[in-house]
Amino acid sequence: MRFIAKDPNSNGDNCPSVWVDEEKQELVIQGWKIDAATEVECLSVGSIPDTETVLRIPARMTQILRKACDVADGTAVR
User: Fold this and answer.
1) How far apart are CA 48 and CA 40, in angstroms?
2) Is the residue at 61 inside a domain?
3) In this structure, is residue 29 part of a structural domain?
4) Among 22, 26, 57, 73, fewest CB within 10 Å belongs to which?
């Protein structure tokens, strides 16, 4: 796995963070657990299987996610 970055405003707990599994071309994201109200809202459009989770990351990480996407799909300049 390739570490991309953590939230620049992290309080030293390294969260949220983003990695890329380059072999599988997948993003791996560590974020905050959602609260019950958010879960209810998410469930209003479909189920959340036991093998999945919903997490929250701040919008300030948009550039980090874009970089991770570029790495995952092979378009990132190394």
Assistant:
1) 10
2) yes
3) yes
4) 73
Tell me the CA distances in angstroms from 7 to 22, 45, 69, one per residue in order: 21, 28, 16
pLDDT band at 34 (very low <50, low <70, confident <90, very high): very high
Residue 78 forms part of a structural domain: no
The position carrying tokens 């570490």 is 3
The single-letter DSSP state of residue 12 is: S
For residue range 37-77, list pLDDT tens digits in order: 999 999 999 999 999 999 999 999 999 999 999 999 888 76
The Cα 66–Cα 20 span in angstroms is 11
Q: Residue 18 — φ and ψ, nearest 5°?
A: -135, 135
In sequence order, which ranges of 1-78 are alpha helices (DSSP H)? 36-43, 62-72
